Amino acid sequence: MENRLMTIMFLDMQGYTKRSAQQTIEEMKIFHDQMFKFVSDIIDRWNGKMVKSLGDGFMVRFESPTNAVQAGIEVQRKLEARNAQMMNPDSLVRFRIGINTGEVGVDENGDLFGDPVNIASRIQTFADTNDVFISESTFLAMNQNEFGAVDLGAQELKNATREIRIYKVLKNGMPGLMPGNAKSAVSSRKIKIGAIAAIVAIIFLLIVFSGIRMLKRKRAEAEKHKRSNTSQTAQAVREEKTSSLTLLDLKPNDKRLKFDSAESRAFAEVHKMRQAKNYAAAEKICVNMIGRLPGNKKLPWGLILAELFFEQGKKENAEKLSENLLRKEVPPELKERLLEQINRLREKYKA
Questions:
Q1: Which CATH number fits domain 2-185: 3.40.50.150, 3.40.190.10, 3.40.50.720, 3.30.70.1230?
Q2: Which of 12, 102, 149, 302 would be a feasible disulfide site paired with 57, CB 3.0-4.6 Å?
Q3: Which residue ranges in the chain fall short of pLDDT 70?
Q4: Cα distance between residue 250 and residue 247, in whole Å
């Protein structure tokens, strides 16, 4: 066995177990062979080498960390293009990709051993679906002028002997490092099940989108107490108007927005760029916020970005982003609020 400095990539297919339960052995073999060829063709173009197939994923090695990241981005981009053409949701294929660089042991069969391999596997488990997550060692070794990344901070990975700093690669972003919230960066899976983050997100959207419920409650109280005066009528009108608002209808200093100071500044800048018709800059701000914010706090910025697309007539982009937001694993009540807001956007910008 020899020791060599290499970059290791793990790719994991999401929903593999469910798919295998619904298909015959022959159908699963055909699907696996298709995915093997799909991944192999891409890694070959970037001078990678398939180490082994893992059933529901693949292990790949590269001499160049930059090539490894480029290959990961190409896999995700081509999968997104493929999925966009699929009518049946069961035909969608999604990968999580984790990449790490370090000195590994290589045996006579080409298999890899050592802590860097384990770390790459744990980063893949930590990664978000449809994304490429890399370690600090890969980030420092690669050509950082090729693509952008978001610093997610030091993370405690399962069975790892130390914290590992993780970066999320921006598949369509500008080159360079975008700051993340390192102190509060945690696994997206922990965020999804974390009660605090979920409650904060639900409260935020309930405050912004609660006009209809407030109106119904006021009307019920008015009927119960048999009161109908001018002040109540005016309040009902204001609430009815609020119920049809989208996020970009709100001013940056609107008290219903429960943004922190950084989010408030970013929202004000989006308004400024929008008024100047500099939509590219406004979109970049939204992408930056989506990349740096944890869990469900990304959702309002996804809605803002979708409205920017609608406003420019980019209906296809807006609808694709809207569908991605609705596929997020969130509590049912929050899903309902998302659907309400997206329907408002569709109604507002229908041609």
A1: 3.30.70.1230
A2: 12
A3: 17, 173-216, 222-243, 351
A4: 6
Structure tokens at 225: 């107490």
Q: Which pLDDT does position 191 carry in this prediction?
A: 45
What secondary structure does DSSP assign to 110-139, as a single string? S-EESHHHHHHHHHHHHSPTT-EEEEHHHH
Domain range list for the chain: 2-185, 193-348
d(CA 329, CA 347): 25
With H, G, I as helix, E, B as strand and everything else as coil, classify residue 62. strand
What confidence score (pLDDT) does residue 197 get? 55
Structure confidence by residue, pLDDT tens digits, 270-304:
999 999 999 988 888 988 888 778 878 888 888 99
Can you name the residues that pair with 49 across neighbouring β-strands? 61
Per-position b or e across 287-305, b if 16+ CB within 10 A of its CB: bbbbbbbbbbbbbbbbbbb
* Residues paired with residue 167 on neighbouring β-strands, in sequence order: 134, 151
pLDDT given for residue 213 in this prediction: 67
Structure tokens at 165: 């700093």
Measured CA to CA, the distance from residue 268 to residue 310 in angstroms comes to 19
d(CA 199, CA 202): 5
